[in-house]
Amino acid sequence: MTRIPNQAPSWSDETRTNAGRYAFSSCTHDAGPANQSAKPAPSVRLRSGPGAATVPGGEARPSPRRPSGIERGSEPMPGRRPRPGPLLDVVEVRAARCGLVDVSFRVTAGSRHALVVPAAPGTGLLEVIAGISYPDHGQVYVDGHPVTGRPLSKLTRDTIGYLPALPRVYPAASVRGVLEWAVRWRVLTRRRTRAGLTGRQQIADMMHRCGLGPFADVRPDRLPPGWPRMLDLAVVLLHQPRLILVDQATTGLADCLHLFRRTLTGLPHTVAVLTTVPTINDTVGLADHVTVIDGGQVIASEPVTWQDDT
Which of 91, 203, 208, 271 sits at 20 to 30 Å (Cα–Cα) from 292? Predict the structure, then answer.
């Protein structure tokens, strides 16, 4: 039997025979300890094609990652917008079921914005903004983040308070019980609370602001006309939203209309209010910006200043 000498083979330069295969070039290794100590470290090719990296010393490191759009400072990722800007941005919303054709407007933080719009389109628009229903086209951004496609998300729960035109039905036995439930719900959802006030103090303060003190022990379904909406407003204010949506702010309020409007206009400047009203006269003293929607489209949107003629 012929014995093969213990010597490393020698390869000459060859061309690649198949795609993805590479030939060793001038890799002649001589046996022996002396030559092994002087042997150069091999190179490692990570991958072929553009962007391939060859790292000396045999350490496999990935190719440098191309920075994303956010890191490059160019256009933002799809579905996201920078946070600086309006609190609410409605972009080309269309919903055929409620007669909205093309609606776009903005609401800045702390503003009092009124939409002069018929009842059905106004209700449908507020439900789209609150994330309750989806539009056929367009998007709604709250604090720079999209709302459409994220029903009842944490964003809408923490940022938006919605008052529908019809009062809600509460299972509690009294008005005080409804407000206690609202405070417990805020604690369970870990929302921010008013510093320095206990839950009972917050309830007492809200009952005073909304005029519900005389009805503290009255069942919610036995309140006089108009006061169920005041109870809805008190519940929303206890949740401490940054944007309050009020559907038909002049409907179903009876004798407490003046108190309802005064409570809305007296909110802190950190809270924005978006209301829908049927006529332009209903916006007097209620809004500092008015948007008129007719035929499902925005025909006017301007800031307003009301003067007291008295």
Answer: 271
